[in-house]
Amino acid sequence: MKFKYLFILIIAFLGIGQLSAQKFGYVDTDYILGQLTEYKAAQKQLNEISQKWESEIQTMKDAIDKLYKDYKSEEILLSPSQRKEREDAIVEKENKLREFEQEKFGVNGELFKKRQELIKPIQSKISDAILKVAKKNGLDFIFDKSANMNILYSNPKFDRSDDVLDELGVTPTKD
Question: Which of 49, 112, 102 has the alpha carbon at shortest distance from 94?
Fold first, then answer.
């Protein structure tokens, strides 16, 4: 029985020894992305597209509101078939609005696809640079400070963000 506990204790100490031998670092991808002009350009393009579609959606909503107000003001004067016709027209416009919103902003909508098209290559480039920095510095782990990792304190000497920027060929600017 003593041997079993001694064996477990030895294994635990060896494990702790291995743990302390691992090297860690972190990067701040928000900071890195903020330094990349290609990312800023991609974000600007996505914002412009998004604003254009939001404007179209607002125009559609305004048209639906007008149809509804007109219907309400004339409802008493309309025959049952005319009321049904107007109600159907409003419902049809609302359905088209929802379809448009899904087509543009839905999970697999055009904005999502455009973001993938523009941002994914940048993310891959950063990921490759992080891997090179990790190998160059003999790091076992690199955490992302900006990705809700809840790092409550980080020693700046382990920050590899500028190393990643160097690997990407970008000179950091202080904002």
Answer: 102
pTM: 0.71
5 pLDDT band (50/70/90 cuts)? very low
Within a domain: 4: no
Residue that has been written with the tokens 């900006």 in this structure: 146
Residue 11 lies in a domain: no
